[in-house]
Design goal:
Length: about 475
């Protein structure tokens, strides 16, 4: 039997009951970017259950293997779900027509569009300003590490079941790329992870909240629409409340600027090596599993209170050393909450006020008012240093990759560059907002202090 390499495409995707893959004539201007998706064939009401994929047609860690011996070896070695599914996909793909999943596998993309497929040089060139670059490098390293581990522990001992020409790093990257961009967690099946053929043709929209799940009444995987659709409209689900960076990392796309309410940017804060209390501060952080450099997610509406705690600790003078432990403990153990920007009494837009859902707690007492100004200045400095990196990239990107001598390379480069420009623009936008809020708060603090000082001097003169 000839083995087909995973990802070799043989035929088009698309079966449909009630839904069909969108076509060019649907007039969806974003359609080309999203690839195939599903379209309503008739009007759909809000609250309707759509799709229905029965459990035997879902791929999980318990699915039956075309090559049963390979499955048994992996189970005996207690291989966890993710690598098990990655190997399962490669194994089934290599069986070609004799795999029960051959139609599904042949419709999968040959190169899933995640950052796994960016070379190190591409990550360095286009994503230097964004912390997502680090996350991508970490992910690629993990995939390589997982493959190396399986090769030395299992594949090398059973070469007849796991031949190198089929089970190699290239095919691993492909199958992990497929998992990152298509695997779903099904809450009603104890959070089990699964590939759901056909349902995984659904594209993501930041404007919907609905997701795939097992429905016990119909005994299948469905999703419940949270808005109506007209016949011919593309139907969407949510891949989760992910930032633009996370969507690029796993799914290879960036939503349009300003359309993702879950968007955030990672801000890197670090202790200064020259800090006289460096080692005591580091010790206080380490006790809580934190390190000298930490990333914190900043959203357009606010940032986690932990970021503020880190800033307080970073600027605390040696005279406060007895409090270092307290600063970290106070915030990191008790309050895992978002500190909303409107807290800072900056001009509060209605949009921001609306963002203060009851799920979010806010705290007013900063507890260390004597160093608040330095802490805010410290965050502002980190914010501005990050903004300048984004601005440098965005400025230089205009003249990048204009070489037309290699059209194939050029297309890829332009595609990746556009994704990076979209990501950097959206991340910088959040930092600009944080910068504005911080500047206003610092100005208010300083003018308040100035007023207090003038009043004090006035009183002094009076009593002289
Ligand atoms: C679960 S699949 C959805 C089906 C996919 N469009 C296809 O053609 O096979 C996820 C992939 O679809 C694409 N995608 C999903 N939602 C998108 C969106 N809103 N914008 C751009 N691409 C999207 C991305 O390439 C992503 O990796």
């Amino acid at each position: 039997m000839r083995r087909r390499l995973p990802g070799e495409r043989v035929g088009a995707a698309g079966v449909a009951v009630g839904l069909r893959p969108p076509a060019a004539e649907d007039g969806d201007p974003e359609g080309r970017r999203r690839g195939a998706g599903l379209v309503a064939l008739k009007n759909v009401r809000k609250g309707e259950k759509l799709l229905f994929v029965p459990p035997p047609l879902v791929i999980t860690a318990d699915s039956e293997w075309g090559c049963a011996e390979a499955g048994e070896v992996l189970k005996k070695n207690s291989v966890p779900d993710w690598p098990l599914l990655a190997i399962y996909l490669i194994s089934e793909a290599s069986l070609m027509g004799s795999s029960r999943w051959s139609n599904y596998i042949s419709a999968l993309p040959r190169q899933p569009y995640s950052l796994l497929y960016w070379t190190r040089a591409e990550l360095d060139r286009y994503l230097e300003a964004s912390q997502i670059r680090e996350r991508a490098i970490e992910r690629i390293t993990n995939v390589i590490g997982t493959y190396d581990d399986l090769r030395s522990r299992i594949f090398s001992k059973h070469p007849e079941l796991f031949p190198e020409e089929v089970f190699n790093l290239e095919t691993f990257k492909w199958s992990f790329g497929i998992l990152f961009s298509r695997l779903v967690r099904l809450p009603s099946m104890d959070g089990r992870v699964a590939l759901v053929p056909w349902a995984d043709m659904l594209n993501h929209s930041c404007e919907v909240e609905t997701f795939l799940d097992y429905d016990s009444s119909s005994r299948g995987i469905v999703f419940t629409t949270d808005r109506p659709y007209q016949a011919g409209e593309q139907v969407f689900i949510s891949y989760g409340r992910k930032s633009n960076g996370e969507l690029l990392l796993s799914y290879g796309f960036v939503p349009k600027e300003g359309t993702n309410p879950s968007d955030s940017v990672e801000l890197l804060l670090s202790l200064k090596k020259s800090d006289k209390s460096y080692s005591q501060k580091l010790e206080a952080l380490r006790k809580h599993g934190l390190s000298a450099s930490q990333c914190f997610p900043v959203q357009i509406t606010g940032w986690p209170v932990e970021l503020m705690a880190y800033a307080y600790l970073a600027v605390s003078p040696p005279s406060m050393s007895s409090q270092f432990e307290k600063v970290v403990k106070f915030y990191f153990e008790k309050y895992n909450v978002i500190l909303l920007f409107y807290h800072y009494k900056a001009s509060i837009s209605l949009q921001l006020a609306a963002a203060a859902s009851n799920k979010t707690t806010t705290r007013k007492d900063m507890r260390f008012p004597e160093i608040e100004e330095q802490a805010l200045q410290y965050i502002l400095d980190s914010c501005e240093s990050s903004i300048s990196k984004y601005s440098k990239f965005l400025q230089e990107s205009g003249s990048m990759d204009l070489d037309v001598t290699s059209p194939k390379q050029l297309n890829r480069r332009l595609f990746l560059k556009q994704l990076a420009v979209d990501l950097c623009t959206s991340e910088r936008r959040i930092l600009f907002r944080a910068q504005y809020i911080l500047r206003r708060r610092l100005r208010d603090l300083r003018s308040g202090e100035l007023r207090a000082l003038t009043l004090f001097n006035g009183l002094r003169k009076l009593f002289k």
